[in-house]
Amino acid sequence: MCLAIPGKIVSLVPDEPHLGVVEVTGVRRRVDLGLLVEDMPKIGDWVLIHVGFAMSRISEQDATEQMQLLTMLGEGEAAMNEVRGYGLEERGDFRTGEKHRLGTGKTPTVQ
Amino acid sequence: MRFVDEFRDPGLITKAVEEIHRLAQPGRHYRIMEVCGGHTHAIYRFGLKDILPEDIELIHGPGCPVCVLPMGRIDDGLALAQKNGTIFAAFGDMMRVPGTHGSPFEHKARGTDVRIVYSPADALQIARKNPKRHVIFFAIGFETTAPSTALTLMHAKREAIRNFSVFCNHVTIVPAIRAILDSPDMRLDAFIGPGHVSTVIGCRPYEWIARAEGKPVVTSGFEPLDLLQSIVMLLRQLRAGEARVENQYKRVVPWEGNRAALKAMAEVFELRPHFEWRGLGFISQSALRIRKEYADWDSEQRFDVPETRVADPKAAQCGEVLKGVLKPAQCKLFGKECTPEHPIGALMVSSEGSCAAYYNYEYRKTASLVTEISSVA
Ligand code: SF4
Q1: Domain co-membership, B75 together with B155
Q2: Considering the domain boundaries, does residue A108 fall inside one?
Q3: How far is CA B375 from the centre of its chain?
Q4: CA-based, 20 to 30 A from A45: which of A90, B188, B278, B335?
Q5: Residue of the nearest CA to atom 1 in ligand 1?
Q6: Contact at CB, B147 and A38, closer than 8 angstroms
Q7: Are residues B192 and B339 in the same domain?
Q8: Considering only alpha carbons, which residue of chain A is nearest residue B265?
Q9: From the CA of B360, how far away is ligand 1's center (Å)?
Q10: Do residue B144 and residue A82 have CB atoms under 8 angstroms apart?
Q11: CA of B349 to the centre of ligand 1 (A)
Q12: Cβ atoms A107, A26 nearer than 8 A
């Protein structure tokens, strides 16, 4: 649980400024951005996520490498389960039709 | 060559290994502690031990949140969960950790409503959806995790969600390092500082280790090259007779830490006068408790906690392994009574626990990467 998961901010949640939607290898979930209020990420930025909270901003290259690292540590699957398990998507989220502006850049994948 | 190819510049890995061999002074034995359990996992996974000179010994530190929790706290948390209508929520890492009367999973099998959550925010979400039930979030973790619990408590208070409380077991890393340095049977030369804890607290809190104890500290990333470069930086300091704090993981760790996270922690938590650690005993000011202002969301202030204290099973040597005095395989139960399938101690449960890491990568000898790296080095 010490290892952090890289994700890309794909949208911000209207009316809930502390929430953002991240995408990790194609899976989208809401995460809390409250720990980054002093340096708020924008759509398209990459962050490291720990227990459902974005804890630091990173570069896209670092994000790719972090995902590779998780895969090599045998934690790629666990990381994706964790992301899928984040329960915050339930209070009206992207699946209710809210549109996303997708940033550019490729999403790192778990092999 | 899979290992080298998949990471940044394989040439740099070879260079770092060569540099380590060059810097290590013949006849000198180096004892370097990696504080963080994530580093322990990576070191075993990548077989780094096998490409380092024999005289560089890596000692596994106490930075595995599940491992350092004494059994009594698990018993206490589960005792609170027995109250009618209570939902006990915890991270997956906790689920198989043995308590006196079984792990959270075993309690679940006997009827306790135990839920795995991946985030404290999810535990709060369960409370929102179950207004008639009380949800206890069993919080564990170092400073990496504590800010997320803090923000969750701030949300709970703001929304006045009354059926939610946190059983707080958050601990702080620096007092544990101090306890290890104070322990008479421990001789260490340098520290690989934690990666993600440092994103929150920054590098300053380690400065006393360099200044007062004369030991170099380098906060490190988790990739093989990160760890090797950190060892190079430590050896350079040792060779020059210096002791400073350096930051190898600059791409993620700001020197001053994360101010917003520190602020959230300070709003919600205060230091406990002392807290018991598995293996290390009571350490003063080494853990966080919830402030009075948040008493309504603190399981310990809201409910009667039995305050169980239990000794570890007699033959289990988790304490010694946690302090770095014994290697995992030196515990009498290792690989016999205690395996990842049937863990007796918490160090065998979590992937960050040194017993589990050693068992999975060394004992089972599944990692063939070692030979691949050696051929590069
Ligand atoms: S082998 Fe099991 S009992 Fe022994 S130190 Fe490791 S976790 Fe504890």
Answers
A1: yes
A2: no
A3: 32
A4: A90
A5: B334
A6: no
A7: no
A8: A35
A9: 14
A10: no
A11: 9
A12: yes
A 39-68 → B contacts, CB under 8 A: 48, 50-53, 55-56, 58-59, 62, 65, 68
Judged on CB neighbours under 10 Å (0-12, 13-18, 19+), B222 is buried
B160 and B277 Cβ atoms separated by less than 8 Å: no
For the stretch B57-80, pLDDT in tens is 999 988 888 889 999 999 999 999
Subunit contact B148:A50, Cβ cutoff 8 A: yes
Q: What CATH number corresponds to the domain at position A30?
A: 2.30.30.140
Q: Which of B71, B318, B339 to mutate to test the pocket of ligand 1 (most atoms within 8 A of CB)?
A: B318
The ipTM of this complex is 0.86
Per-residue pLDDT tens over the stretch A67-90: 888 888 788 888 888 888 887 654
Whether A37 maps to a domain, the answer reads: yes
Highest mean pLDDT among B60-64, B91-95, B296-300: B296-300
Residue for token pair 């402030």:
B291
CATH number at residue B69: 3.40.50.11740
CA B179 / ligand 1 centre spacing (Å): 21
Q: Are residues B351 and B287 in the same domain?
A: no
What is the value of pTM for the model shown? 0.88
The answer, yes or no, to whether any atom of ligand 1 lies below 6 A from the CB of B258, is no
Q: Residue B309 corresponds to which amino acid?
A: R
> pLDDT value at position A87?
72
Beta carbons of A107 and A25 less than 8 angstroms apart: yes
For atom 6 of ligand 1, the residue with the nearest CA is B355
**Closest by alpha carbon to B198, among B148, B254, B245?**
B254
- Give the C-alpha separation, B304 to A14, whole Å: 41
List of residues 6+ apart from A16 with CB closer than 8 A: none
Atom of ligand 1 nearest to the CA of B334: 1
Its domain, for residue B354, covers: 318-376
A29 strand-pairing partners: A22
